[in-house]
Amino acid sequence: MPRFIKKSNKKSGSAPGTLILEGEARVETIKISLLDYDQDGITDKEIKNVEEAFPFKEKKSVSWIHIQGLHDIPLLEKLGRHFGIHNLTLEDIVNPGQRPKAEDFDDYLYVVFKQLTYDGSKERVGAEQISLIVGQNFLISFQETGRDYFKPVRERIRDGKGRIRKHGSGYLAYALMDASVDDYYNILSTVGDKIEDLEQDLLDNPEPSCLDQIHKSKREMIFFRKQVWPVREVLSKLMKSDSALLHESTDIFLADVYDHIIHVIDIIESFRELLSSMLDLYLSTVSNRMNEVMKVLTIIATIFIPLTFLAGIYGMNFEFMPELKWKWGYYILLVIMAGIGGIMVGYFKRKKWL
């Protein structure tokens, strides 16, 4: 449940825009990287003080400032004052439980989406909030951890491949979202293989552990869907936006990511339906197995009913029972009982009950 409902550190009644880090710091020290580029050149460096990034706000080239770690509130306040970021936006940035969304503040666009990861040891999908501030010639991205999710985008910028060095900050925002959505496919591929293995195990030997795995996988799909579904709304809003920060040439690329998100959602829904059918299959298989056991026990009990009847008659202690004095009576009764049992078994097989 903690992944679905996050506990807030903010006190009730706090003023709007109050910056309080939600959760714990996930990196020891904040890391700031700067990538400034245009068609002719590139500046790529790590900076220790946020003030070093301030001059790049007015440059005509595109400046990408990437911040890993959110626990330094004074640093974020400095950055917000210089780049004109509203306190409500900063409050959302330090709250990693935000729903994916896009907001237009005239001077900048604020975009939130989720970067998903897969922990193979725990077989669990995780999510990290990525926040983007898209300005005229700059983009500031924020994340909680120190993992580099956007290495392919950095390499494209450094190598000057594709269109990215020829377009503005809006196209860079698209490239980051596209890289994140590509990771969705990788995670779905891993989860899909796991579900296929689970389905085969279910068909071969439906054990109680299969039921636990089905429920666990269903929860993962619910979590996955919760993180991905709102991204469709974000992309739709960006495509319909008339903001000057997004050029019309970027819309076609955003539409491509939108198509990918729709495809991802379709795959998630397919997996959810498959898991539901697997649950029904498990319950049906267990029920059929129980029916088979009950059928065998019923047949055994039915065979022994007449045998028990005969044994009960000759087990009575009446003195004047003529068969009790027969020399071969015991053996004759055994043959009769065996014959009755054989006839009943043959009848059951003829009816295909056995």
Q: What is the name of the CATH class of the largest domain?
A: Alpha Beta
Estimated radius of gyration: 35 Å
Mean pLDDT: 86
| Strands side by side in the biggest sheet | 2-1-3-7-6-5-4
Structural features, described:
- The protein has 2 domains: 31-284, 2-Layer Sandwich (Beta Polymerase, domain 2), CATH 3.30.460.20; 291-350, Up-down Bundle (Methane Monooxygenase Hydroxylase, Chain G, domain 1).
- The chain has 7 helices and 7 strands; from the N terminus they run βββααββββααααα.
- The protein has helices spanning 73-83, 87-93, 151-159, 169-204, 208-240, 248-313, 329-350, and strands at residues 31-37, 42-47, 62-68, 101-104, 109-119, 124-134, 138-143.
- It has a 7-stranded mixed beta sheet.
- β5 (109-119) and β6 form a beta hairpin.
- The longest helix has 66 residues, at 248-313.
What is the element layout, followed by pairings?
Layout: E1 31-37, E2 42-47, E3 62-68, H1 73-83, H2 87-93, E4 101-104, E5 109-119, E6 124-134, E7 138-143, H3 151-159, H4 169-204, H5 208-240, H6 248-313, H7 329-350
Parallel strand pairs: 3-7
Antiparallel strand pairs: 1-2, 1-3, 4-5, 5-6, 6-7
